[in-house]
Amino acid sequence: MKLLLSFSRKGQHDPGREPVIARVVKETGVLINVEKANIDSMAGEVLVDVPDGDADLIRRRFEEMGVSVRVVVDAIVRDEEECVDCGACMSVCPQEVFSFDPEWRLCVNAERCVLCGRCVPACPHGALSQQE
Q1: What is the pLDDT of residues 24-45, one digit of tens each?
Q2: What are the structural domains, with CATH classification, of the chain?
Q3: How far, in Å, CA of 88 to CA of 43, rounded?
Q4: Cys-Cys crosslink for 46: which of 5, 41, 60, 77, Cβ 3.0 to 4.6 Å?
Q5: What is the DSSP string of 88-100?
Q6: CB 34 within 8 A of CB 48
Q7: pLDDT of residue 16
Q8: CA distances from 91 to 35, 88, 118, 119, 121 (A)
Q9: How far apart are CA 104 and CA 45, in angstroms?
Q10: Is the pLDDT at 132 greater than 70, yes or no?
Q11: What are the strands of the beta sheet with 68-72, ordered from one edge?
Q12: Mean pLDDT over residues 95-120, rounded?
């Protein structure tokens, strides 16, 4: 399951100043895969993938440490009525989220998505949107 972690780095005791991911891994023994991270001097946002069976435990532990957690379900949404199966999204996606089925219809494997957002502006019909 994918979790989007958000934190600030403003004060002395903010989670952005602590090694929260390392701490959660050490305390729980659950391995966490970091798929994307955007961290600067003021705030951070990290997309992590955790085993489904441990997701509630991991989410609770991060929240106890002051990290805002959002479960990411269907990161990319495709409007099937608007999509013309052109494949433009395939050409820009670094994670191979998009593919064609045997009838050349576009398929979306949202579990592979790392929320880079490249596909959204690449779609000439505006058929893709990113979960907020």
Answers
A1: 999 999 999 999 999 888 888 9
A2: 2-72 (3.30.70.260), 76-130 (3.30.70.20)
A3: 33
A4: 5
A5: HHHHH-TT--EEE
A6: yes
A7: 56
A8: 20, 6, 10, 9, 12
A9: 36
A10: no
A11: 33-39, 43-49, 2-8, 68-72
A12: 91
What are the CA-CA distances from residue 61 to residues 22, 31, 88, 117 (Å)? 12, 14, 40, 28
What number of residues does the chain have?
132
Concatenated DSSP letters of the chain:
-EEEEEEE--STT-GGGS-HHHHHHHHH----EEEEEEE-SSEEEEEEE--GGGHHHHHHHHHHTT-EEEEE-SSEEE-TTT-----HHHHH-TT--EEE-TTS-EEE-GGG------HHHH-TT--EEE--
Count CA atoms closer than 13 A to 19's CA, side-chain side. 5
